[in-house]
Write a structure and sequence with these properties.
- With 587 residues, this protein is α/β, with parallel strands linked by helices.
- The chain has 2 domains: 23-332, ABC transporter transmembrane region fold (Up-down Bundle), CATH 1.20.1560.10; 349-428 and 510-516 and 545-587, 3-Layer(aba) Sandwich (Rossmann fold), CATH 3.40.50.300.
- Helix content is 60%, strand content 10%.
- It is built from 21 helices and 10 strands.
- It has helices at 23-31, 35-67, 76-121, 125-130, 133-171, 181-224, 226-231, 235-261, 265-285, 291-302, 305-333, 392-397, 422-427, 443-447, 456-465, 469-473, 492-506, 522-536, 548-552, 571-577, 579-586, and strands spanning 353-360, 369-376, 381-386, 407-412, 415-416, 429-432, 510-514, 540-544, 556-561, 564-569.
- A 6-stranded mixed β-sheet has the order 6-7-8-3-9-10. The protein has a 4-stranded antiparallel β-sheet with strand order 2-1-4-5, with no helix packed on it.
- Strand 9 and strand 10 (564-569) form a beta hairpin.
- The two termini are 65 Å apart.
- Bound molecules: thymidine-5'-triphosphate (TTP) and magnesium ion (MG).
- The site of thymidine-5'-triphosphate has 13 residues, from helix 12.
């Protein structure tokens, strides 16, 4: 089996690789390992259909026994017992078919979730910035579910009903060869209609799945930005926007229903049944078959009902599943720029950082950073200052390769970040973001995020060093207090100290603190100052800050302006040489 050779920031070696060249091949490569379940499904379905066909055959024999010139009443009991026995066995086989289909459906759902999650973790920030979270969520949850439904009941019913359709061909000729006529006509028309149906169905089910993705995207964004929505009193506008998307989704569904309703085999079945009965009666009148044959044949024709009624539903389910498979595959196959570079440089970091004529832009035709060159020695503290939008955050994100420089190089310990083993590079660099993200779990778990096996003692030590211990213990549940939804909410300053505690725990060689929160009361400010000073000790530290006290004691100050270095040096040097820097201090 082949697999795509996409770059990935993160991979796990897996025993199974899946073929991602087309939706059908991909689904097949997921299915093939479970060939034994497919066999169970087929045996179950074939047995079920065969035994279902025996019923009209036995009933026909019973009719013949009664209507014979000398009625053979003694044959009725064995026939009844045969019917009962065969239907009990049939129920068991049916169970096997349903069980098999459900088993493979669940297995596939699990494996696909797994594959998708790993792939999402491996994609670059460039990808995640563009791809809406709501849409990804829709694909990762509901679309994966649709693949489950595709097998159970979808494939289950298709296989089951197909084998039902085969039965009249196997059993009718024993009464008369000509009786194949109606089933043959039925089958030909049925498959032509099915072909047409599937063709018109697939764009419709694509539309259904896409409409759902859009709806979900909007929902996720509205909830994520609920404060903004409320703050701007835009609830009504949100509702009407949501309604519009919900209507689109409804329209797509109605279209699907419309197609289902126009599925011709419904009409066809009525015609086949009537035509078949007529045909059998004519043969009876001609003395070609017996009355039992007519009864049995009509019973066999009745078996065509299953494929007729199951088909709209089952094939729609399969079509929805394939639409979903295409959407998931689109995510799996979307290009990502970085790769984890597993064989790359992975030594203990000293903490030297060097920018060499580095330039960067989020999209190719727009440059955010231009011609950045400077070197930071291990253990130094660098303050990066500049107006909002100057590119401070962007600059530090090049160090751990969250983003990749467009031209020029970024070197850590003299090694190009592209040549570093990505995991090793990122493990030794800790970036505390401007908006600190906390997971909805306990405070302890949030602190231990980068080191899940940390002991309670280690966690507390880190919290103390980050000046967070005091406020954490003020909560009733202390370190076990839940953050978010059901638990405590934290202020900006508290979040920052939790993030610092995270950094103390992982003990990175390079620490980046993107801190543009300036409105903090002086008591908190004092706490944070001390925490940062402690954190900066013994490692290379980048501070993005507006706090003059912090800027002042930095070893190196980089003043950014419109993505360029406007001035660089120590506080004293810059006070003398840089007008831009003096202006910051005179504000
Ligand atoms: P930043 O690097 O975010 O600027 P900054 O950190 O100096 O600003 P602040 O003090 O407000 O935090 O952005 C530099 C430019 O890059 C800006 O014009 C916005 C643009 N940009 C993007 O296009 N995409 C992004 O994801 C980010 C973060 C910024
Ligand atoms: Mg910023």
């Amino acid at each position: 089996m082949t697999t795509s050779n996409l770059a990935s920031e993160f991979t796990i070696s897996r025993p199974r690789q899946y073929n991602r060249t087309s939706a059908v091949r991909w689904i097949w490569s997921h299915t093939a390992p479970y060939w034994w379940i497919i066999i169970i499904i087929f045996i179950g379905a074939a047995g079920n259909a065969g035994l279902a066909a025996l019923m009209p055959v036995y009933i026909g024999q019973a009719f013949d026994a009664i209507t014979a010139a000398v009625p053979q009443i003694e044959r009725l009991l064995p026939l009844t017992l045969l019917i009962i026995g065969s239907q009990v066995v049939r129920a068991i086989l049916q169970l096997g078919r349903n069980f098999g289909a459900d088993l493979i459906a669940q297995k596939l759902e699990r494996n696909i979730r797994d594959e998708l999650y790993i792939s999402l973790l491996g994609k670059s920030m460039t990808f995640h910035n563009i791809q809406p979270v709501g849409d990804t969520m829709a694909r990762a949850t509901n679309d994966v579910r649709e693949i489950n439904f595709m097998y159970s009941p979808g494939v289950n019913l298709v296989v089951g009903s197909f084998l039902f359709m085969v039965m009249p061909f196997l059993f009718a000729p024993q009464y008369h060869r000509d009786l194949l006529l109606v089933p043959t006509l039925f089958a030909i028309t049925y498959f032509i209609a099915l072909w047409e149906y599937l063709h018109s169905l697939s764009p419709v089910t694509d539309a259904v799945r896409n409409a759902f993705g859009k709806l979900n995207t909007r929902l996720a964004e509205a909830l994520d930005g609920i404060e903004t929505v409320k703050g701007a009193a835009q609830e009504e506008a949100e509702v009407s926007l949501f309604n519009k998307l919900a209507l689109k989704m409804r329209d797509a569904f109605v279209k699907q229903g419309d197609l289902e309703a126009r599925f011709i085999p419904m009409l066809l079945y009525g015609l086949a049944f009537g035509g078949g009965l007529l045909h059998a009666l004519i043969l009876y009148r001609q003395g070609e078959i017996q009355i039992g044959g007519v009864i049995a044949y009509v019973g066999l024709l009745e078996m065509l009902q299953f494929p007729t009624f199951a088909s709209t539903f089952a094939y729609t389910q399969i079509s929805l599943g394939m639409s979903s498979a295409r959407r998931i595959l689109e995510l799996l196959n979307s290009e990502t720029l970085l790769d984890q570079n597993a064989d790359g440089y992975a030594e203990l970091m000293r903490g030297e950082v060097c920018f060499r004529s580095t330039a960067f832009g989020y999209n190719p035709n727009e440059s955010v950073l231009t011609d950045i060159s400077f070197t930071v020695q291990p253990g130094q503290t660098v303050a990066i200052v500049g107006q909002t939008g100057a590119g401070k955050t962007s600059l530090v994100k090049l160090i751990n390769r969250t983003y990749e420089a467009t031209t020029g190089d970024v070197l850590v310990d003299g090694v190009n970040v592209r040549d570093w083993n990505l995991a090793s590079l990122r493990e030794q660099i800790s970036i505390i973001e401007q908006d600190i993200f906390l997971f909805s779990s306990t405070i302890a778990e949030n602190i231990a995020f980068g080191k899940p096996d940390a002991t309670q003692e280690e966690i507390e030590m880190a919290a103390k060093a980050a000046q967070a211990h005091e406020f954490i213990t003020s909560f009733t549940d202390g370190y076990q207090a839940e953050i978010g939804e059901r638990g405590v909410t934290l202020s900006g300053g508290q979040r920052q100290r939790l993030a610092l505690a995270r950094a103390f725990l992982t003990d990175p060689r390079i620490l980046v603190l993107d801190d543009s929160t300036s409105a903090i009361d002086s008591a908190t400010e004092d706490h944070i100052q001390r925490a940062i000073a402690a954190a900066a000790k013994g490692r290379t530290t980048f501070l993005i800050t507006h706090r003059l006290s912090q800027i002042r004691w930095a070893d190196l100050i980089v003043v950014l302006k419109n993505g360029r270095i406007a001035a660089i040096g120590s506080h004293d040097e810059l006070m003398k040489s840089s007008e831009a820097y003096r202006r910051i201090f005179s504000e």
